[in-house]
C-alpha cells in the first residue's frame, strides 16, 4: 500500500508537468491492461492499480533540481519530427541519432543559427528509443517470469520488475499518442502562421489535461475503440515510428479545434472524438507491445555473433562503440 500511495503522491505533485494529465495516462494504461487477451501477459492485471496510479511517474524524473535525471529524461517524452526531416532512415541507435543531430548542427550553425539552436537531443526528442528500451527490458523480465514458473518458484519479484517497465513503456507510448508530442508545435505554433493558430503555450495542457478531465475520460470510454491485437509480427521499432507518425499527422487537427472554441465546449463531438481516438490508439499500441513482449519472451534470446561490442561485427560503429540493433 505504501508503494501505491507514493505513486499517487508523485502523480499529483504540483511541480510536475503531466503529459495527457494524470487522468489520460492512467486511463491508457488501465485500458491496455484490460485489453490483454487470455494467453497474453495476464499477470499484469494483478498490478493494474499500481501501474495506472504510477502512470505519470516518468514525468517526476524531469525536475529542474535533479539535473542528471532531467537531462537524460526530458528528451524521452517528445519526437519533434520536423527537426530531423533531413535524417533518413532513422538510426536504430539512440547514440547514432544523437551524433547525427550534432553533425547536422555543426553543418548549419553558421548559415541557419535559429534552426541549429533546436537541432539537439532536447529539441528533437528520443521517445521511440525510450519506448524500445522499456519494451526490451520487458522481454527480459518476462523471460525471468517464465523461467521461475518452470522451476516451480515464486514469480512475484520478476512480475514486479515487469510492472515497473510497463509503467515506463506506458508513459512513453501514451505521450506518443498525443499529437503535440510529435511536433515542434508542441507548445504553441512556431514559425509562419497563415492559418492564425494560437501561439499560446497553454494549448498543450488545455488539450491533454483540462479537456480530458472535463469530459471525465474513463477506460470504459475507449475500450470499444481498441480493437483486436496487432503488431504480432514485423519490426517493432518500425512499428513505433509509424505509430508516432500517425499521431503527428493529427497535430494540426488539435490546432484547428482549439481555434474553433479554445477547448471550452466539452460537448464538442469532434474534440471528444479526437481524445477518444488518440487515447484508444495509445492503449492499443501499449497492449500490442505488452503482448508481443510476452510472446518474444517464450523464445530463447538470439545469439548475436560477433557480439555487438566486437570490432569485427560488420555493423560495428566506432563512434558509439557498438553495433546498432
TrEMBL record:
Keyword terms, alphabetized: Signal
Region (Disordered): 301-325
Parts forming coiled coils: none
Signal peptide start and end residues: 1-19
UniProt-recorded name of the protein: Nuclease
Organism this protein belongs to: Sphingomonas oligophenolica
